[in-house]
Design goal:
CATH topology of the largest domain: Butyryl-CoA Dehydrogenase, subunit A, domain 3
Number of strands: 7
CATH architecture of the largest domain: Up-down Bundle
Helix content: 40-55%
Bound molecules: flavin-adenine dinucleotide
Shape: globular
Order of helices and strands: HHHHHHHHEEEEEEEHHHHHH
CATH class of the largest domain: Mainly Alpha
Number of helices: 14
Distance between the termini: 15 Å
Largest sheet: 4 strands, antiparallel
Length: about 400
């Protein structure tokens, strides 16, 4: 399986992965520090991994730094980088300043002036951003969102009212995007750029069990004034604005999230092998079996990423790899905790943290139940493989 997956990567990607693998170990200490104090990130921004993340999340045309090489990563490059960095620690990716998930929405929907302003702010020093979609009670049913965008009574732009929840970096961001409703139905959804210093914006941190670096937040908007030029995609028809922007960003990022999960899952397997180099045959076969599955899903992640790079987006397959990666992450931590002994989660603080972190991946970018529904729709349409052959990665 591993060899097959390698075949999908060209020499430059293999070199990039080597570079990521070199910098990833330095992230272990960072991960433990963020777990204790998520704001400690500012002490670690000098690490080379953050230069890499800056490279991939800052569109090259806006990169101001001359000390990092600019490039526009393909989806395949994104998954390769994110998996390798997350082998060190996935919190680094989620805690990093930069455009993050909002990058593709602004780049895709914004006009020139909107992009210049947004990315101009992002490259102006370490700037945190957010992607505000989820609402209380409207997580899986995100398209039923209720945050409203209504014309301001004085005719000067719009007013934003509502609440968002579980928004990564929301309460520490300097700028972000908010999905909101201007009219009923999916085409009534808009995306606006918001500055948290605007009157009526309130952000607070939510307590987290895992992935504490993500700093998920509750955001409340109380008559926040949104000038008309902050509505992204105002030059496009409604069907190519809000929902289109959300889907574009999420589908492109979802394989990356699966790759992050696999990176940390592989790290758990490696940790287990390092601490229990000799295992009884049956237990060894369980670890081997798990790693085979990780390789199979990695192969599938590379395939869906390559498809996206070729303009083919099969939502069912993308959802399937995300779901399977999240399941393997949980399974790996359970197996490691079992094989390292009854007090393993006390004796191995890193494993205990990985155990908590890997559970958060179930929720990000859609839960397994939702992806399972999507997978069944794909199966009904025989959408998975040419000829309808069962795929080893989906068993
Ligand atoms: C670390 C982290 C970072 C996040 N960052 C962001 C962010 O930056 N921006 C953002 O907008 N959101 C973010 N989220 C939110 C995330 O997208 C939501 O948690 C996710 O969409 C699930 O929504 P929910 O938590 O409201 O769960 P719910 O939708 O309430 O689901 C609860 C349970 O019900 C099940 N369920 C729901 N609907 C169905 C159905 N139709 N059929 C069967 N089962 C169903 C789900 O599978 C789940 O098990 C983040 C979450 C986490 C954990």
């Amino acid at each position: 399986m591993t060899a097959l997956s390698e075949d999908l990567l060209d020499d430059s990607l293999l070199r990039l992965r080597e570079r990521c693998r070199e910098v990833a170990p330095s992230l272990r200490d960072l991960g433990m520090a963020l777990d204790r104090d998520p704001d400690a990130i500012t002490e670690y921004l000098h690490l080379p991994a953050f230069d890499l993340l800056d490279q991939i999340f800052t569109p090259p045309e806006y990169q101001k730094r001359t000390d990092v090489e600019s490039f526009d990563p393909s989806c395949t490059a994104l998954v390769v980088i994110l998996e390798a960095i997350s082998h060190g620690d996935p919190n680094a990716v989620l805690a990093a300043p930069g455009a993050g998930l909002s990058r593709d929405v602004v780049r895709e929907l914004g006009d020139d002036a909107q992009r210049d302003e947004y990315f101009g702010r992002v490259v102006d020093g370490p700037t945190w951003t957010f992607f505000g979609l989820t609402e209380p009670g409207k997580g899986s049913a995100a398209l039923e969102l209720e945050t409203t965008l209504t014309p301001a009574p004085d005719g000067d732009g719009f007013l934003l009212n509502g609440e968002k929840r579980y928004i990564g970096n929301g309460a520490r961001a300097q700028i972000g995007v908010v999905f909101c409703r201007r009219a009923p139905g999916p085409w009534g959804i808009e995306v606006v750029v918001i500055d948290p210093s605007d009157p009526g914006f309130e952000g607070s941190l939510l307590p987290m069990v895992g992935l504490r670096g993500a700093r998920i937040s509750r955001l409340v908007f109380n008559n926040v004034r949104i000038p008309a030029d902050k509505v992204l995609g105002r030059h496009r028809p409604p069907s190519r604005r809000g929902v289109y922007g959300a889907l574009h960003a999420l589908l492109r990022f979802r394989p990356g999230l699966a790759a992050m999960t696999l990176g940390q899952t592989q790290a758990v397997c490696d940790y287990l092998r390092a601490h229990r180099p000799v295992l009884p045959a049956w237990d060894r076969s369980r670890v081997d079996g798990l790693e085979d599955r990780v390789s199979a899903v990695r192969q599938a992640v590379h395939e869906v990423a390559a498809d996206i790079d070729h303009g083919v987006v099969n939502q069912h397959r993308v959802g399937a790899v995300k779901m399977r990666a999240a399941q393997l992450g949980e399974r790996a931590t359970l197996l490691a905790a079992e094989l390292l002994g009854p007090a393993s989660l006390i004796e191995h603080p890193w494993l205990e943290k990985a155990y908590r972190d890997l559970r958060a991946f179930e929720f990000m970018e859609g839960t397994s139940n939702l992806h399972r529904l999507s997978v069944f729709q794909g199966l009904l349409k025989n959408d998975f493989l040419p000829g309808g052959e069962p795929d080893a990665a989906w068993d």
